[in-house]
Design goal:
four-stranded antiparallel sheet, Immunoglobulin-like, mainly beta, 40 strands, 717 residues
Length: 717
């Protein structure tokens, strides 16, 4: 390969050595050098495709001692390429596709080959060419390949998938610019479908029969063929009615297999209007055609079969107005119906199908509707003043047909209903009550109802007041008492007039509750049967009579003793002393005082007045109202007492010997006295007036102690 020599070789003996890959490193022994001559040799063939460069280091040393004679020198060995490798295709078999409607120059596919030789030399310069084409139609040069890029393209048109759907190409790749080593592969080209064929009807003309008055009925199914690929948009069909469907009576759609055309009726067909239809139907594909083609068409004649159609009311909804008090037998209206079957001679009759209230009668031959019974606009069969009746019209054909209509009667109102109070029971408070709202109802129309007039009947106007307010929905009436009412239940009679002076009395139960202002909860005294109340009254009266007898007996005994033993009852000293057996009192009680009707001694602090009253008992009014009649005051308190039969006996402790307010003098405890009663003369106290007469009696000799009958003592019975 090369001879290595140093300039010092002439003077001294030099030995040569090599180090590096291919020498003393793997692959070892690939290169050797002669020790004395420095000749470098290769021991075996080299493969550039495995390694194209080797870097070695050459050492020159003294032969006698092996010391370094010079610095090492790098030796680079390049392996020169030989054309020893064939080109190789990346794919042994290649596949491409092109539409049958493709044009010249359209891309089909690309093939690629590689060469392991040095790409900088012609050893790796590859060129392509097509060796063969199968089939060789429409020509043997249908496809072409770029020799450098390997792109396969179409050289001309004329492809037909329906004739030849696939081509086989043998493609060669050779190095040395196509003159060296070579290899081949097989390329498969698939011709894809394009919509270059129009679908064709299998039947060009057809005839069908369809009954009238039926919509959505299938008339006919069209069958077609298509040479394009089935299941694709190039073969799937679309249909259109291009003539004869000006009234849009029919429609045509594609069947589930996308190849059938289903013709059906879109509207009801009328034999009397048109008995025969002639339709022209065309078929196309979902995809557009890629070349000019002739569209296939078919003609179908559709005959409409006559059916017996039901009579038709004219109009279908007959509306009339009628007073609700129309007389029985009076005419309402005449029904009219026509038979659309002009080719048939039939007679029409009528019938009531639905007359819920049974108010009308219908003549089946003439169609006259008359009143059969009394009508009522306020009936639950009437809605918004209208009463609906379903009427029928039928012919006398072999198979009769029946038509329906509606008779809508608007009932005009008559003032035949009296207004009434809607409530039957109300509650008010006994003290300062809020007015109670009462609602007036009248089934009649507004013109025969409000405004209303309300009157209190009998004696109720004395205790109750009525005020109307027509601006409130329901024409409210407000009821309120004219005076303070006692708790309990009562009945109020009201008479209500409507705008036509038609009236009706309404009885209203009123509860007067123990409350004030607005009523929230009602509390009433419990009522007892009459015989129990009478028994309570009898017991009370008997007890009072017995007590009075005992009291009278005690008073007589004490008065007797008082007259015999006490000199204080002389006429000249009776200024403020009451006689115990005089119920009206003494000289201080000559004028009638209304306050004596009250139980209790409000002005005597030491006299205790006790009443036992039931917790739920409503006490009568203790004080009469200003300007109130005393008789009415006593009557109301008596009624309140009678109503409370559940309370225990209503007893009080009565004072019979209270003689007045007592002495206005101060206490006598401050008077001085001597140590001896003999030095005292109390007789002069008799001259001090009646207030000191009793003191004189106490301190004079021979006077008996009459403490039991002293004036001013309070006796409790």
């Amino acid at each position: 390969m090369v001879k290595i020599k140093t300039s010092k070789d002439a003077a001294v003996e030099i030995n040569y050595r090599i180090k590096g890959p291919g020498a003393d490193e793997p692959p070892e022994g690939l290169f050797t050098v002669e020790r004395r001559s420095g000749v470098l040799q290769v021991t075996q063939p080299l493969d550039r495709e495995k390694r194209d460069t080797y870097n070695l280091w050459v050492h020159a040393v003294h032969a006698h001692d092996g010391s370094k004679a010079e610095e090492p020198m790098e030796l680079i060995i390049h392996v020169i390429d030989l054309n020893d490798n064939h080109p190789e295709f990346t794919l042994s078999s290649s596949y491409g596709n092109v539409s049958e409607s493709a044009k010249t120059g359209d891309f089909v596919m690309r093939v690629t080959a590689t060469d392991r030789d040095d790409p900088q030399t012609d050893h790796a310069m590859i060129k392509y060419r097509i060796l063969s084409q199968t089939p060789e139609v429409p020509s043997d040069y249908t496809f072409a390949i770029n020799p450098l890029s390997g792109v396969v393209s179409l050289t001309g048109g004329g492809l037909d998938r329906e004739t030849h759907s696939e081509y086989k190409l043998i493609i060669q790749a050779a190095d040395m610019n196509g003159a060296g080593l070579s290899t081949t592969c097989t390329a498969t080209v698939t011709i894809t479908d394009s919509n270059d064929n129009a679908p064709q009807f299998t039947i060009k003309s057809a005839f069908a029969t369809i009954p009238e008055n039926e919509a959505g009925v299938e008339v006919f199914r069209f069958q077609v063929t298509d040479e394009d690929e089935l299941g694709s948009a190039n073969a799937n069909t679309k249909y259109a009615i291009v003539k004869g469907n000006e009234g849009v009576h029919f429609k045509i759609s594609t069947g589930p297999d996308r190849m059938q055309g289903i013709l059906s009726t879109l509207k009801k067909l009328d034999f009397e209007s048109t008995s025969t239809f002639t339709l022209l139907v065309a078929v196309t594909n979902e995809a557009a055609f890629t070349r000019p083609v002739s569209t296939s068409t078919a003609t179908i004649a559709v005959k409409v079969e006559d059916k017996n159609e039901p009579p038709m009311f004219a109009p279908s909804k007959i509306q009339v107005s009628l007073s609700e008090d129309a007389q029985v037998g009076s005419s309402v209206t005449y029904l009219r119906a026509v038979d659309p079957d002009t080719a048939r001679r039939t007679k029409i009759r009528f019938k009531l199908n639905t007359d819920a209230a049974g108010w009308f009668h219908l003549d089946p031959d003439t169609g006259r509707v008359s009143v059969r019974s009394d009508m009522d606009r306020e009936s639950h069969f009437v809605r918004d003043n209208k009463y609906s009746v379903l009427v029928l019209a039928y012919d006398n054909d072999t198979v009769p047909a029946t038509g329906t209509g509606t008779l809508l009667v608007t009932l005009l109102d008559v003032n035949d209903n009296a207004p009434v109070i809607q409530q039957r029971k109300v509650s008010v408070c006994s003290v300062d009550p809020d007015p109670v709202q009462l609602d007036i109802v009248d089934p009649d129309s507004p013109g025969n109802a409000g405004p209303f007039t309300v009157e209190l009947q009998r004696e109720h106007f004395k205790s109750w007041n009525i005020k109307t307010n027509s601006s409130i929905p329901g024409h409210a009436v407000f009821l309120s008492p004219t005076r303070r009412m006692l708790p309990g239940r009562s009945s109020v009679l009201l008479r209500v007039y409507d705008t036509g002076s038609v009236f009706q009395d309404s009885s209203l139960q009123v509860e007067v509750c123990e409350c004030e202002g607005a009523m929230t909860t009602c509390s009433l005294p419990r009522s007892e049967p009459l015989h129990r109340r009478l028994s309570y009254v009898s017991l009370v009266l008997g007890a009072i009579f017995t007590l009075l007898l005992l009291l009278l007996l005690v008073i007589l005994i004490r008065r007797r003793k008082h007259i015999d033993n006490v000199a204080l009852l002389k006429d000249e000293s009776r200024d403020n002393i009451f006689c115990y057996d005089e119920e009206g009192g003494g000289e201080e009680d000559r004028d009638f005082d209304r306050s004596l009707l009250q139980r209790g001694l409000n002005e005597q602090q030491e006299v205790v007045f006790t009443e036992v009253v039931s917790a739920d008992h409503a006490r009568p009014n203790d004080q009469p109202q200003p300007n109130e009649d005393i008789g009415q005051f006593i009557s109301e308190n008596l009624l309140a007492a009678d109503a409370d039969s559940s309370a225990p006996l209503y007893d009080s402790l009565l004072v019979f010997d209270f003689e007045g307010a007592g002495s206005e003098a101060y206490s006598l405890s401050s008077l001085d006295s001597s140590d001896s009663e003999l030095d005292q003369d109390f007789g002069g106290l008799q001259d001090w007036g009646p207030r000191f007469s009793r003191l004189a009696d106490m301190y004079t000799t021979g006077v008996e102690d009459d403490a039991d009958i002293l004036p001013g003592k309070t006796e409790w019975v």
